[in-house]
Amino acid sequence: MHAVRIDPDATVTDLNLPGADAQSAIREHLGSDAVDHGVYHRRAVLHIHGNGHDLGLPENLAAWALASAWRGMPLYPLVGPVVVTGRTESGDVTSLDDDLVQHAKAVARTVRDTLAEWRARPPASNSI
Asked: Are strands 35-41 and 93-94 parallel, antiparallel or unpaired?
């Protein structure tokens, strides 16, 4: 089952999850038995580290930007690694469609490029 992992540094890794026990593999990729599920797109599920905020995991700007784009509004921050899978109409986990894989990769690339540009040339601010 095709999925992607988005790390806090905005890298995206293609995953091949086992169809029979995908949830166990997702927990392993997140490093947690506690997994939250965010449905921000009708054909996708974001599997999020359930204790990430309490553990102080780093913010995942790429996953946050993707979820916000899919939802059509800015959302709460996401932290730690995030695994994105497909979702059936009945809500089951399935392979992530290629168009959503490409969208996730494009968003992550944009986040990486923007952060690199800001490091080189910080955005202007009103502070003196």
From this structure: unpaired
- Cα angle for residues 108, 71, 61 (degrees, 5° grid): 30
- Which of 12, 45, 3, 4 lies closest to 112, judged by CA? 12
Amino acid identity, residue 21?
D
Take residue 113 and report the two structure tokens written for it: 């490029």
**Residue 31, SS3 per DSSP:** coil
Two tokens at 98?
A: 């290629």
Residue type for position 95: S
Task: Record the pTM.
Answer: 0.90
Angle between helices 98-120 and 61-71 (to 10 degrees): 130
pLDDT tens, residue by residue, 3-61: 999 999 999 999 999 988 899 999 999 999 999 999 999 999 999 999 999 999 999 99
Instruction: Read off φ and ψ for residue 115, nearest 5 degrees.
Output: -65, -40
* Residue pair 49/34 in contact by the 8 Å Cβ criterion: yes
